[in-house]
Write a structure and sequence with these properties.
A hairpin with a 6-residue loop joins strand 1 and strand 2. This protein has eight helices and ten strands. It has helices at 13-24, 46-56, 71-77, 82-91, 108-111, 125-134, 154-161, 200-203, and strands at residues 29-31, 38-40, 66-67, 96-101, 116-120, 138-139, 141-142, 167-168, 181-184, 191-194. The strands form two sheets. A six-stranded mixed sheet has the order 6-3-5-4-9-10, covered by helices on one side. It has a four-stranded mixed sheet with strand order 7-2-1-8. It is α/β, with parallel strands linked by helices and 208 residues long. The protein has one domain: DHBP synthase. It is 32% helix and 16% strand. It is globular, with a radius of gyration of 16 Å.
Length: 208
């Protein structure tokens, strides 16, 4: 299992507390992860999740990834198979997202009506702390306008999204700089949907 990376900038306790309170009350926060800045909303607030599609200009038929704090929370939102358990132990927390059969607690708006959900445990101590403090999984889609590149600095989030979000939590530059790799485990053979932070060569030995 990967160790969560140290944040490059620690926001003040007051800023973190404010971000948690916003999320607990159905708001949208842009926050850093180990890969890129994401738009976070609690899965307990479908209305807030709906706002994310408006903020990004993203089609609601496109699913949003989900961030969880640990493997226990991961099993609450997704059906885990043996390979999913192995990949989770090996690469999470970290830059790997798994597409798995969803559980009923995941709102339809998150998955675009699909029967699967994309989920990962971020390798970032601040992100993990916030997820645990909110007490619910969060959305983890990149904090950028659809069609534009994902961003690693809070200033770039503000440049693209302005005041559309309730808060931009500045945690410095994201240490990864690449979006997570995505592996679909709902197909007959595991499929790499997106090559990202975890190289293909590191993933394939587990299922080839």
């Amino acid at each position: 299992m990967s160790s969560p990376k140290t944040d490059t900038l620690q926001p003040s306790p007051g800023e973190v507390a404010r971000a948690i309170e916003i999320l607990k009350n159905g708001g949208v926060v842009a926050m850093p992860t180990d890969t890129v800045y994401c738009l976070a909303a609690s899965l307990e607030y479908p209305e807030a999740i709906g706002r994310i599609f408006d903020i990004k200009g993203r089609a609601t038929t496109k699913a949003l990834p989900v961030l969880v704090a640990d493997a226990i929370q991961m099993r609450q939102v997704a059906e885990m198979n043996p390979l999913a358990e192995i990949l989770t132990r090996r690469f999470m927390p970290g830059g790997l997202t798994l597409i798995l059969p969803r559980k009923s607690v995941v709102p339809d708006i998150v998955t675009g009506g699909k029967t699967s959900v994309a989920v990962r445990i971020p390798g970032h101590t601040l992100a993990l702390y916030i997820i645990k403090a909110v007490g619910a999984p969060l959305t983890g889609t990149s904090a950028n306008l659809s069609g534009l590149g994902s961003v690693c600095e809070a200033s770039d989030v503000r440049a693209q999204l302005g005041d559309r979000v309730d808060m931009v939590l500045d945690g410095g530059r994201c240490p990864g700089g690449l979006e997570s790799s995505i592996v679909d485990l709902t197909t007959s053979k595991p499929t790499i949907v997106r090559q990202g932070a975890i190289p293909k060569a590191e993933l394939e030995p587990y299922y080839s």
